[in-house]
Amino acid sequence: MPDEEWERFLSESVKGAAGAPVEPSARAREVGRRLRERSGQPEGWRTCSPARPRRRTGWYVTGLVAAVALLAVALLPQQVVGWFGGDDAGQDGGPLAAESQRPREAPGAGPSGRPTLAEPFRGSPAARWADGAAGITVPPAKATGWMDTAQVERALRQSRDFLVAAGLDSRVLRGERPTKAIALLNPHQQDVQDYLRTALSSTAPTPETDPLLLFSRFRPGQTRLVGDVVKTRGRLMYQEGKRGAVEVTADVTFVYPVTPAGDSGRDAEVVRTIVRREVVMSWDDPAKVITEPGTMSLVSYTLDMTNGGCSAPTGYFVPPFGTADEQPADPTRVDPYDRSKPIDTSDGTTPTDNDCATATRS
Fold first, then answer.
1. Would 291 be classed as within a structural domain?
2. Residue 209, domain extent
3. DSSP designation for 202
4. Is the confidence at residue 31, as pLDDT, over 90?
5. Does residue 322 lie within any of the structural domains?
6. Dihedrals φ, ψ of 360, to 5°?
7. How many Cα neighbours within 13 Å face the side chain of 349?
8. CB of 250 closer than 8 Å to CB of 159
9. N or C: which end of the chain has fewer CB within 10 A?
């Protein structure tokens, strides 16, 4: 072979001859296989593909609703319960939420049954009410009249203290002097001081001087409370009153289960005395009204009671033991648990009358 042909052969062996077949590498074969299996534009090697957005509307809406609901429950628990039926909420027998506004209607009928020593609130709507002071709702305080927020908060707290001292203190319930309640009354309000002096000393009070108008009392020799629990339901409201005073209105119902004092048997009769009071209290500006620090003046006080006595006032509640099966002929019928209307002082259910209307339940 001439030298020129030999040199050309060696050169083409290194560079490759034109049109000669080329064996693809292993990577090239793998890439080719993937391309054949896929449709559309291939992804570049080491390129960044953005995550595909996924629609999660259902979860986002559910989460937002849940967050709003939790916030509403935290800030406005009573109103939220009201959205689902108010006093009718929790018909499974659970406790009612606190009362924050006047109910729209009377509570529905609950399980039937007479009260017993073991279950003194059996068959009563009060079975789902709170115990004692816990059943009296105190609204949030804000500056009103001559008081700033802190002073209004203190006035509301002391207003509830008065109701507790007048209607829940165990010593007062046994007929003792309501010292704590009196200490919260303005000693310079002469008409109220005259009432207190007469009401708590007279053995024959009149309807106008009956201590029951403000204080709950049972005669120990005749009546004893069943257990230590008195059920309550009600609320406080407030507004600016005369001369810039902070006027607090209380509307509270107390349910007292009682039994005859001399009957200690397991089958002793239990009667529920139901008392509703509306009391308007004025926390006056000391620059405009003569008063003492920490005391308030009474604007008005009204009583409605069931199973507390229908004869002349005695200064004590007189439960009608032994008459549970009797049906009074009085056509006037009232529901003592109906808090949807203000107290009606003209329907014969207050101690200012000589007889009582018939309670539809107790």
1. yes
2. 114-359
3. -
4. no
5. yes
6. -75, -20
7. 26
8. yes
9. N
Beta-sheet pairing, 333-334 with 231-240 = unpaired
Domain count, the chain: 1
Place of tokens 């004092």: 261
The distance in angstroms from the start CA to the end CA of the chain is: 132
Tokens of 251: 């509307």
CB 361 within 8 A of CB 336: yes
Number of H helices, E strands in the chain: 8, 9
Which residue do the tokens 């009070």 mark? 205
86: its two tokens: 């108010």
Give domain status of residue 152, yes or no. yes
Angle among Cα 145, 298, 155 to the nearest 5 degrees reads 45
- Closest of 85, 216, 77 to residue 137, by C-alpha: 77
pLDDT digits (tens, 9 = 90+) for 266-284: 789 999 999 999 999 999 9
Q: Is residue 184 part of a domain?
A: yes
Residue 38 carries which side chain, given as an amino acid letter?
R
Question: In 3D, which of 88, 125, 93 has the Cα closest to residue 103?
Answer: 88
Residues 131 and 98 sit within 8 Å (Cβ to Cβ):
no
Contact 178, 146 (CB under 8 A): no
